[in-house]
Amino acid sequence: MQPPFSSRASCGLVFSHLAFGMWSLVVDVNSCVLSMNPSVRKLFKKWRMTVAEYTWKSILNQLVVKGEHLTEDQSEWYINDLMDGNADPVQVGAVLATQQQLGLTADEVAGAAQAMVAHAVPLNLTGETTDIVGTGGDGFATVNISTTGSIIAAAAGVKIAKHGNRAASSKSGAADCVEALGIPLDLTPEQVAEVGEKVGITFAFARTFHPAMRFVGPIRAKLGVPCVFNLLGPITNPAKPAHFAIGCANAKLSPIVADVLAKRGASGLVFTSVEGMDEIAPTGPISLWVVKDGGVTQTSFDPTVDLGLPKVTIEDLRGGEPAYNAQVARDVIEGKELPCTSTILLNSAAAIVADGHLLSTAAQADRADNGYDLSLPDNITGTIVDEFREAYGIAKETVESGKAKAKLDEWIATAQAVKA
Q: Would you state the pLDDT for residue 329?
């Protein structure tokens, strides 16, 4: 009796069966990838990109020679390679500049954001969090509107994971203002998480949570033109918030940011003012992209008309050095009526709308437990204007009741104690 697989023919037959089995396995994996849990899907995606054998030459050929946009996987691959420290700065510069010339797509931004978050130090917070942030670059050098607004939103009951950096194009970035308020920036990631759990608001300093950006900074400085990284800051929060309120200085890029959030399964708002400011302000009409249930709806509203807020000018919102902006933040939080007060409350309202759980009659019991007036506007119908009207009232009441000041004091004291 012959031993099994003793002949060349039988070995070939076995190999054929094995090969067919492997082919079937690949087909099965591809067919069920959409049903995988996120961690397994991420591993499959990494395997697929490895099999594809992308190279910088192939990326440049697609962009420069063919004039075609990158896929999400290709964009993720080159940002991964860059942040691993493997990339040639000349090739990186060429890719970034050509992408900008062709115009960025949602897939390209989503892939880049995925890679950047994968290289970030994670910020582990329980429950759902919200970030209110702007892309920057609008050139208006305003006070720190979203930073101040985030404190008020946190005092109202929204769990805030604020992500930011020092100033790039203005005199005072979010990190500069937070530091001037008395919150230390040199906390460890674990300490940042501890503060967030204790207070309901915390600050993720970009330099702490994105160490791989050291490979990017010198290239961007020499490049000297906007690129995909200008959009990545607001959408690469290491806490991976479920909800966002993002101001975008360029209305052409706002729908791309919104599409990226939708792809990620997040919800929230993306907005641009009529002047191209990355804030919601009662200066005139606001272009708004509402992200919900994997889709994006574009709309607009005018806070001066729809909410009856007095009109303000850009000059009313001008800021200065960090110490000045921090004092403005304190004054608004303590209830002083400044020209920028309504704008800050409006941005707090954006965070409250993005988070959603404080809105509508379904949340009345929760609001009652927190000491809020339960009277709602008579015309609550669920439209975005109705939501902003209600949210603005919540933000205003949070300041007037002293809750916002108490939250700021608690944040500072907790952060300083945690560091000590």
A: 98
Residue keyed to tokens 């493997």: 86
Nearest to 103 by CA among 270, 226, 236: 226
Any idea of the CA torsion for 134, 135, 141, 142, to the nearest 10 degrees? -10
Tell me how far apart the alpha carbons of residues 368 and 374 are, in angstroms, rounded to a whole number.
7
Which residue's entry shows tokens 């708004």? 288
* DSSP secondary structure, 255-322, as one string: HHHHHHHHHHT-EEEEEEETTS-SS--TTS-EEEEEEETTEEEEEEE-HHHHS-PPP--GGGGB--SH
CATH number at residue 358: 3.40.1030.10
pLDDT digits (tens, 9 = 90+) for 168-226: 667 888 999 999 999 999 999 999 999 999 999 999 999 999 999 999 989 988 888 88
Sequence-distant (≥ 6) Cβ neighbours of residue 79 within 8 angstroms: 111, 112, 115, 116
Question: In angstroms, rounded to a whole number, what is the distance separating the alpha carbons of residues 210 and 204?
Answer: 10
Q: What is the layout of strands, in order, in the sheet containing 295-301?
A: 201-205, 160-164, 130-134, 243-247, 267-273, 286-292, 295-301
Q: What is the pLDDT of residues 71-126, one digit of tens each?
A: 999 999 999 999 999 999 999 999 999 999 999 999 999 999 999 999 999 999 99
Q: What span, in angstroms and rounded, lies between the C-alpha atoms of 38 and 77?
A: 18
Q: Is residue 362 part of a domain?
A: yes
HSE of 412, CA atoms in CB hemisphere, 13 A? 13
Q: How many other C-beta atoms are found inside a 10 Å radius of the C-beta of residue 390?
A: 20
Residues spanned by the domain of 389: 130-209+224-412
Phi, psi of 268 (to 5 degrees): 145, -155
What are the tokens at 260? 């990226």
| C-alpha separations of 27 from 22, 38, 267, 305, 385 in Å | 9, 19, 33, 56, 48
- Helix, strand, or coil here: 160? strand
Query: Does residue 91 fall inside a structural domain?
Result: no
User: How many domains does the chain contain in total?
Assistant: 1
Residues 6+ apart with CB under 8 A from 396: 345
**Within a domain: residue 299?**
yes
Tell me if 28 is assigned to some domain.
no
